[in-house]
Amino acid sequence: MDGIPSRNLALELVRVTEAAALSAGRFMGRGQKEAADKAAVDAMRLVLNSIEMDAVVVIGEGEKDEAPMLFNGEHVGTGSPPEFDLAVDPIDGTRPLADGFVNSIATVAIAPRGTMYDPGPAFYMDKIAVGPEAVGMIDITAPVAVNLRRIARIKDMHVNDITVVVLNRPRHEKLIREIRECGARIQLIPDGDVAGAMMTCWPDAGVDVLMGIGGTPEGVLAACALRGMGGEIQGKLYARNEYERRQAEELGYDFNKVITMDDLVSSDDVFFAATGITDGLLLDGVKYFSHGARTDSLVIRGKTATVRQIIARHNFNVLNPISQIEY
Fold first, then answer.
1. Could you tell me if 128 and 215 are in contact, meaning their C-beta atoms sit under 8 angstroms apart?
2. What does each C-alpha distance from 299 to 165, 168, 308 come to in angstroms?
3. Half-sphere exposure of 88 (CA within 13 A, CB side)
4. Does the pLDDT value for residue 217 go beyond 50?
5. Would you state the pLDDT for residue 232?
6. How far apart are the C-alpha atoms of 262 and 271, rounded to whole Å?
7. Helices H, strands E: what count in the chain?
8. DSSP code, position 159
9. What does DSSP assign to residue 259?
10. I need a labelling partner for 218 at 20 to 30 A (CA). Which of 92, 259, 275, 324 fits?
């Protein structure tokens, strides 16, 4: 019946990201990227398979191989309806986690079957993302200065008040120079541009826009989050070399096309969850105490534009005897 609240799967997905964060959090600063990734993946898969749904991994760890990753095309859930596409990044920011740096999170999103963008071999894209106030004001094809002036004007700010989050990569030398010439502030992040895009919608983060080249899969995850947070993301596919471009173009990918949020995820009926692993501007990392830990998560439902922040305390004395995951 109309008016009766429907099932909010985001509240079930947060158990997935909490489990991944708790499992991976033990590896902070230990330099063991692969071990951290495996711990997060194993925890995610276990909890995902307990959820009543039939989800196919669209954004995962590539085609199935010997690695215990959540691979593209894998079915997770109990196998019963509803049917979903699933995007997952067990650790967005594996390197920062391994090195003991900030901004590492666990993320997962679902949307109705057939509504998520499949990047195929197009691994990278140029992106721009903003929060609710600047929706409709950005253009990925416009110069940096034009976008910054538009954002500043609609937010009633000066350009030198604007903070731009950018991945710290050599490929962004020109972008960083152009932002500095405009007078805007820059927040460099080592990894994790899903969190970077979400920061533009989270007032406490103090970020106004994300710019730069990052992963296309991360762009899909960010779009799922921004659907519910009221933001906007645009992109254009980016090839690191001619081989990557040719491989993608042979499959019909267009490097001149502006990719909108509707292209990345075409349904508002999207669910997203993220849990902090290490501290960041968006979320606190896992905090351990005697026989337990604290997690900080965001839970987003696109259809109702509801964003919940969930602070949870986990008691390992109770959890470990009944769980297949050793926290």
1. no
2. 22, 27, 5
3. 33
4. yes
5. 98
6. 15
7. 10, 13
8. G
9. B
10. 324
The single-letter DSSP state of residue 280 is -
Averaged pLDDT score across all residues of the chain:
93
What is the token pair recorded at 25?
């959090």
Token pair for 157 = 């700010």
Sign of CA dihedral 106, 112, 117, 123: positive
Amino acid at position 221, single letter: L
- The answer for 73, left when phi > 0, alpha when psi is -120 to 50, beta otherwise, is left
What does the block give as tokens for 310? 């969930």
Amino acid at 180: R
Which letter does DSSP use for residue 133 in this model? Answer: G
Which residue has 């830990």 as its token pair? 293
Cα–Cα distance, 104 to 106 (Å, whole number) = 7
Q: Where are the beta strands (DSSP E) in 75-147?
A: 75-76, 83-92, 105-112, 124-130
| pLDDT tens, position by position, 274-292 | 999 999 989 999 999 999 9
Extended strands (E) in the chain? 54-59, 75-76, 83-92, 105-112, 124-130, 163-167, 185-189, 209-215, 232-238, 271-276, 287-289, 292-301, 306-315
Instruction: Indicate left, alpha or beta for 103 from its phi (over 0: left) and psi (-120 to 50: alpha).
Output: left
Name the one residue in this structure whose structure tokens are 């200065």. 145
